[in-house]
Amino acid sequence: MRSIVLASWCFCLFAAVSSQNVGTQAAEEPLNMPISVCSGPGNCQTEADGVVLDANWRWTHTTTGYTNCYTGNLWDNSLCPDPDTCTTNCAIDGVPLSDWTGTYGGSTSGNALSLKFVTQGPYSKNIGSRTYLLDSSKQRYRMFQLLNREFTYDVDVSSLDCGLNGALYFVSMDADGGAAKYPTNKGGAKYGTGYCDAQCPHDIKWINGKANSKDWVPSPEDANSGKGHYGNCCAELDIWEANKQSQAFTTHPCTTNDQTQCEGTVCGDNDSGDRYNGMCDKDGCDFASYRLNDRTFYGPGSSFQVDTTRPFTVVSQFLTTDGTDNGDFKEFRRFYVQEGRRIENSKVNFPGVAPYDSLTDEMCSATKALFGDIDDHKNKGGLKKMGEAMKKGMVLVMSIWDDHDVNMLWLDSNYPPNGDPNQPGIARGPCPTTSGEPSEVEVTQANAVIKFSNIKFGPIGSTA
């Protein structure tokens, strides 16, 4: 997905927090979001799915009252002196429909989901959000088996500028959020629990049904976030990370195909120098048009092939070695449709490198060698390993976030910022290296909205 993953999360309603027990102070009401499941061209059926808010954004309080267990970026030491006591004392509450718009900035209309970046709620300011697609039961995450399939949606990134990321991606979460595995997880998928990704994030407040309060360190950059002792790892398939200036799609295999709590070296933490010693490929293999030296493919205005001032359709295809659901994952193909015009994906545009127009193991190795990057993608099993996770089923995530670590420069500017932009791989977008500072972005782009709509899923050639 991304080189560094840190969203600016605000826990609203009395400085809201997250837990695994279920409170009774607010009703849980997921948003309705129908999708189309296709069996062939022109043969699609509508299924009444839903959208649930991630547990990290929710109000968590004592099980018997309204007292917060976590305020700002700190656990309450009296309620949470240790993870077991915290788990017993705290309950996560629901998100009623009125709070989706008024507190968290989320809404649906027909088959479209809109996520607003900053929302001033009745008690505090919410920044960013992360949501998951539920199946029609509204009790479990929809599981997508993506091999030998294509996934299509419409997207509008026109209000997202430098420093923002409107993301749509898949991770190897459990369909029930881990509720069956971990008895202390009373919320399950219905309450948005169980998140994991290839960055093995430590800022998840509840992992495997217990509070991640051990050794919790508040973030010096983010007043609403911190890091606990444990991380939560799993494979990640980034279909879409983008603003109107730049975009990327990325595969992140892990040595394990299931959600796995980590501690120590296997987390691959940057702070300990273990980025490439962990269980997941944190860099991933990315196909990013600007980084691959096509500067006219994607951007705001009619001079670009994909004009980001207007909505467009994104079609992703996951091809296998033998053209069946049981084959190994061999190729991630992409094309776009805008106002009835099909737009083929951009190509790698560096002398001495084949003009790849899709993500394959060969493309990954060639571009990483050109960029001088460690090929951790290959070390972690490449597309074959990524395909094993896809075969088991993955959960769809849709989010909007800013970056308190490196200001999203890895997506839309030069990264590292002191690198030579003439060196292949350094320039990732047209944004200045001074852009993306959250304190600025959260003011100047407060009204930014990412909109995903018209999701379709089915065999190759059935959705576009």
Automatic annotation (TrEMBL):
InterPro entries: ConA-like_dom_sf, Glyco_hydro_7, Glyco_hydro_7_sf. CDD domains: GH7_CBH_EG. It catalyses: Hydrolysis of (1->4)-beta-D-glucosidic linkages in cellulose and cellotetraose, releasing cellobiose from the non-reducing ends of the chains. The keyword Hydrolase applies. Residues 416-438 are annotated as: Disordered. It is an enzyme of class 3 (hydrolase). Keywords: Carbohydrate metabolism, Cellulose degradation, Glycosidase, Hydrolase, Polysaccharide degradation, Signal. Residues 1-19 form the signal peptide. Its EC number is 3.2.1.91. Belongs to the glycosyl hydrolase 7 (cellulase C) family. This is cellulose 1,4-beta-cellobiosidase (non-reducing end).
